[in-house]
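Morning, I've got a small favour to ask if you have a moment. I've been staring at a protein lately and its backbone has me curious. You're getting the sequence in one-letter code plus the fold written as tokens. I've dropped the whole record in just underneath, so have a look:
=====
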Amino acid sequence: MNSKKKGTVLLLVSLFLIFTSLVFFVIGCNSDRLISDINRRLALTILILCVILLIYSIFLLIRFKYRRGFKKKKVVIFSSLVGLYAVGCLSFLFILYGPVENFKTWLITTAMATMNHQHYCKWFYSDDVINEVMANNYVGRSEADTDPNLITFDEEIEYANEYERAVLERNKDALYKIIEFDVNGCDAYLAVIYDASKISVGISKYLGRGGQYIYDMAEEQGAVLAINGGGFYDPNYNGNGANPLGVTISDGEIITDYAYDSMNGGIIGFDLENRLVLLRDASAKDAIDYGIRDAVTMGPFLIVNGEMAEIRGNGGWGYAARTAIGQRKDGIVLMLVVDSNEFRTEGASIRDLAEIMQNYGAINAANLDGGTSSALVINNELINDPINSALEHKTRGIPTIFKVVK
């Protein structure tokens, strides 16, 4: 191999190694987990050696510029590949650590909210950075429980705005209607239920052993409409929907009464007068004493007694498929389901849910289980498009639903 050819090879190799070691070094300087101190020092050492190698290769090319090296076509091809690789490395670092923090905020809040994908952000950011982002994106805790007396079941029809018209315009005998729109480019469905007495909690027939698909529960339990209900335990991120979180009540019967870290939420249910009630730090007995007939557990609460929760940034839950439930002052119940995109990187934030519920007049509203669980079934047909972690267009087994039965 002549000196010019040797210089060309060394130049391309050194550039490749420079950008590779640069990526690992920069990530190592910002992460507490992905790269250890030893590997970070190794990356820095390789980076320095490659810079020296680069200088040497440039020297060879200059010194023997009249000597023939590789054919021009090969040089162009390999140079283009290395150039694209370099641009890719620099773009990757710019997205992760550049001055525009949208991606960092999205990645951290979305990953930290999913529980089973937290390592995605911990690979690239330190605990201090993660904590700082989460401190700027959260849902504040309201100490108040809902006041059921605010629900008056008004019959008077008034159209204060386009949202009121969308909710209140209906066929006289309609039990429900569906309003379709989009949220951040993703499909959203708002089920408007005009008779809250028809809403109850459905339970998987395999409770304690496994969940059921929402359409199977809806069909078996005679529901004309159903959405997924509360959260459930997900050990090792492979849960089968067997055990609901916290308190579950169905038709006045206590189904579960587990301790629950409320995530600014708690018990979400309907009382004997068909009013949506949100209770914090309450046991199943407390809920029964309060008059709750059907309830699940989840959070955060979005609106309590007409007051939207304090939500900073996107709420700290990132963007994903979401489900929420709320009730207007006139007693009409709102059930909201928002899809994600094909790669599960978009959808609705907690702030989006709260604002939608507020726009459509909810006086109380709460977030339900989301992600792959988010589903809306009408007449035994799955209306929305859930996507699981394998990017398959399918939902998963769940333990509870809110169902509408004629």
About this structure: The mean pLDDT is 87. Residues 3-100 form one domain.
